[in-house]
Amino acid sequence: MAVGKYKYKGIGSDGRKVEGEIDGRDIKEVKRTLRRRGIRVRKLVAPSILDVDLGMLMVEKGLAKPFGMAELSRFTKQLTILIDAGVPILESLEILGKQEKNPSLKTVIKNVIDEVGQGKSLNEAMASQKGFSRLYTALVKAGEAAGILDTVLRKLTEFMERQEAIKKKVKGAMTYPAIVVVIGVVVTWGLMVFVVPQFVGMLQESGQEIPAVTQFVIDVSDFFREYTLTLIPLVAGSLFAFLNYIKTRQGKISWDRFVMKTPLFGDIVIKGGLSGMFRTLATMLGAGVPLIDSLDICIDTMDNTQMSKDMKIVKEAVVKGKSITEPMGRIKYFPPLVNQMIKVGESTGNLDEMLIKVADVFEQETNDTIDNLTKLIEPLILVGLGGIIGTVLIAMYLPIFMSAGGA
């Protein structure tokens, strides 16, 4: 199956001769695409080995990296602009597919174009492809049914951009401390393995009594020198085992519960999770999706298993005819003020608008907590590393100072 640009010649819908190039995976697909454009093919030349699209070939072989939230958000934003400008859906998709650089997303767009061209709705075509979440396709379905697809896509874009911004902020806040810790560990290891042994030789030659703190540092140095080659695979193996464990169902449940209870970090996880959950719910309700279905999709899209479990209890209560605030009020990490705001939204019929306000509150609190944590953790790390390095240096020079004082 050749993947690349096919050269074609044919007759357009106006009866004139046309020729050009078109991306495709095989001759059948190219002919279908040209027929949709009203072109009757007279000649079609398959791509040579030099014309093969390596990106799409990697996708077909399963070697290409899947597209992420940033690429999907950009695609959705561009699709919104085109549809809002009155460009038909199929033509909009073809325009975006032609200019898309990410091979995985380009392939998915082509598949969606094929299915839409065969008579499927946009949400059905997207649901059959990897990369479009249940939330995404449900909102597209609601937008198509209500005739407000451009409005729904705009809400989707805003939702994804906010989610991506929070993720970037959390990653950015953790990156600097992680780098400092890694550098500190490497520096400390270097001191123990290369620097401390130089002092040990000097101390042994002097024959003087070694202080307790100096002896402790020497013992640690000996340990690192002797067991470094053993520690590296041991630590790497433990990390690998831990990462695989939290990917299992029980491991994920245990890890999520543990993280939620940790100081500071637990607060970020809870508030960030609540912000995303309420924004998802608000976006679904605002698009006209029923509350039960919205809760169901919201549960599926939540990453934290404990919060997902709690929301299942909320959904079951709503199915039985109770208000959403009653079961939420029994969840310990739900602030009473938030529950009261949701209750007001329910009673006034503006639940989606109130949920947006609640999501904004949690998002702001998450950002503030991250900022405060960053301000707190940076000096703690620097003081901790400075203390370790300072202790090593003092321990090594202390016998020299004591010898000089005795002399």
Describe the 3D structure.
By secondary structure, the chain is mainly α. The protein folds into 3 domains: 4-57, no CATH class; 60-157, Receptor-associated Protein (Up-down Bundle), CATH 1.20.81.30; 158-407, Type II secretion system (T2SS), domain F (Receptor-associated Protein). 75% of the residues lie in helices and 5% in strands. The chain contains 16 helices and 3 strands. The protein has helices spanning 27-36, 54-60, 69-84, 89-99, 103-117, 122-127, 134-146, 149-206, 212-245, 249-261, 265-286, 291-301, 305-319, 325-328, 336-348, 351-406, and strands at 4-11, 17-24, 40-45. A 3-stranded antiparallel β-sheet has the order 2-1-3. β1 (4-11) and β2 form a beta hairpin. α8 (149-206) packs antiparallel against α11 and α8 (149-206) runs parallel beside α16. The radius of gyration is 30 Å and the shape is flat.
Layout: helices, strands, pairs:
Blueprint: E1 4-11, E2 17-24, H1 27-36, E3 40-45, H2 54-60, H3 69-84, H4 89-99, H5 103-117, H6 122-127, H7 134-146, H8 149-206, H9 212-245, H10 249-261, H11 265-286, H12 291-301, H13 305-319, H14 325-328, H15 336-348, H16 351-406
Antiparallel strand pairs: 1-2, 1-3
Question: In short, what is this structure?
Answer:
The protein has 407 residues and is mainly α.
Mean pLDDT: 83
CATH homolog superfamily of the largest domain = Type II secretion system (T2SS), domain F
Helix content: over 70%
| Straight-line distance between termini | 86 Å
Which CATH class of the largest domain?
Mainly Alpha
Examine the coordinates and then state which fold CATH places here, giving the name of the CATH topology of the largest domain.
Receptor-associated Protein
Q: What structural class do helix, strand and pairing data support? A: mainly alpha
Tell me what portion of residues adopts beta-strand conformation.
5-15%
Strand arrangement within the widest β-sheet reads 2-1-3
Uncertain parts: none
CATH architecture of the largest domain: Up-down Bundle
Encode the helix/strand succession as letters.
Answer: EEHEHHHHHHHHHHHHHHH
Let me know the number of strands: 3
How many structural domains in the coordinates? 3
The radius of gyration over CA amounts to 30 Å
What does the main sheet amount to? 3 strands, antiparallel
